[in-house]
Amino acid sequence: MIIEAQTALPVELPALANRCASALGLDTALIYLADLQQQLLIPLDEALEPLPVDRSSAGWAYRTVSPRVSEADDGLILWMPLVDGVERLGVLAVRTAWLDGVRMRRSRMPAHLFAMLITSKRAYSDWLAARTRTATMRLPAEMLRAFLPPRTIGGSRCVSTAVLEPAGIAGDAFDHSVVKNILHTMILDAMGHDLTAGLTKSVAMAAARNARRSGADLADVVGSVGQALAQWLPDSFCTGVLCRLDAETGVLRWVNCGHPHRC
Question: Which pTM value belongs to this model?
Fold first, then answer.
């Protein structure tokens, strides 16, 4: 099953989930992914309807990152959160005639497996991307999405999470990364609300990542962003807040860039 999962196309994941559930002695398994606004849980089975995050058992499991059991006509549904590291992806709906400790443990196995599969396959799957969109995305937003990191990153010592309204964004962006025990975060606001604003953000994010991955400190990262914008987009303007958190000592350093001075 794991070998088959490695080469499965994203559109084949719903059928694979059912076969995995059957192999574990369960009835069925359905994959639901959160939409970009995190208001709906959208099934990968296109014949089914989305579920609201704020008023459903599935949404409760997603919000709390905890299993939830609800009754069904032919048994029970166990809602298992799909989590990649610390990022919530959605839920797995496992149907079973009854539930005990063994079946609970068996239900966790496909939840972990399909969380990893979705994470690895969504990077190249337009189908998975389209399933989690509830509105048409404008070109500047589409360009930005290609650069954005996962919404939530981190580990046991620190967690960083950020959300952008997906369809209308043009001048805003975020970035975060963990380098050993250091959490780097960045919030950008580029001038304008058109494709040029998206290009400005893209250059700023690329410059920051390039400097960061070369071992630059916070001040040098800021300098690299400024130099890149001056060289490639001299008529554009971008403000930003860049932070560096040492997860071991708790020391936070931050730089406020481009904002007018206020007394």
Answer: 0.87
